[in-house]
Automatic annotation (TrEMBL):
Protein name: Sugar ABC transporter permease
Signal peptide bounds: none
Recorded superkingdom: Bacteria
A GO CC term attached to the entry: plasma membrane
CDD domains: TM_PBP2 (cd06261)
A Pfam short name: BPD_transp_1
Keywords: Cell membrane, Membrane, Transmembrane, Transmembrane helix, Transport
Family: Belongs to the binding-protein-dependent transport system permease family.
Protein's cellular compartments: Cell membrane
Renumbered residue ranges of the record's region Disordered: 1-33
GO process annotations (BP): transmembrane transport
Domain ABC transmembrane type-1 stretches: 114-328
Membrane topology listed for this record: Multi-pass membrane protein
Amino acid sequence: MAVETGRSVAPAAGGDARGRGRGTGGAPGKTPGPLRRALATHWYAWAMVAPVVTVIGVIIGYPLVRGIYLSLTDADEANVARTIGVNEIEASHEFVGLDNYQAILTDGVFWDRLGWTVLWTVGCVSITFLLGLVLASMLNRKVRGRTVYRMALILPWGIPAFVSVFAWRMLYNEKNGILNQLLAGGGIDGIPWLGDPTWAKISVIAVNVWLGVPFMLVAMLGAMQGIPGELLEAAEMDGANAWQRFRNVVLPGIRSVSSTVILLSTIWTFNMFPVIFLLTRGGPGDSTEILVTYAYRLSFIVSPRDFASSAAWGVLILLLLSAFAVVYRRSLRKQGEVW
């Protein structure tokens, strides 16, 4: 009986060993993959992130996929699915491939809008960055009333953009605007701020700069205050003047922050719909029309509304910004700024 018992126990023990060898991976001695290890180790973090990822996928992912699909069709107001009273009309649009992109890229309208959009973006971002840098340098010093100045300069950031734009629209009024009244008081003829193509472009850039300076100011000021004071003191003891300290200590110290805010400001300005549309509606004529406002016009203003072309314009805008972000990131990596 003892021998039989031993024989019966041995296979069971071997079976347990083989079972332990398999573990949860199946094959004996096989270690779990990196994805499984990450899930097992950081399951709580994944559980917390999952709802956010799901919401973003629904809010951003679905419209993006839908827009790409529409850009490959001839969908417009007359052939999409719609309901009229109790009648439901099915969609009759067809797949046309890349015809919409070919039509856009061979049309001078796209290149004219792209040229002004690039000029508008470069002008706004450059002026905003320089003003934010100068103001941050001034407020980084110990001056009387610094808190009041900070609040006054950050105030435009706290006002909704559409409210600010409407306020500026009243200031730019050619007959009753405060700006032309001030000019008239000095014996200067009024300026057609929004009626002349050149002045309209200057006007929209000025409004966008006014809206963007507070963000740049806060970012630059925070970066400057993060620079160790010992570096500035050491440079001053070595005989460096204020400009040399700024160029050799401050600018390198804020490079990582400035490169990031420049990228963000570029993306925001490239797609700055409210300022252009609410201030000039792309006018006079189409002189201030940027890519995003023209895409909106195709989808919601012109008749019949051209959903396919509007979606194609949107996809091209996304591709342009993605290409810029990739090139910009590579240039930063070459300079040693990795983010």
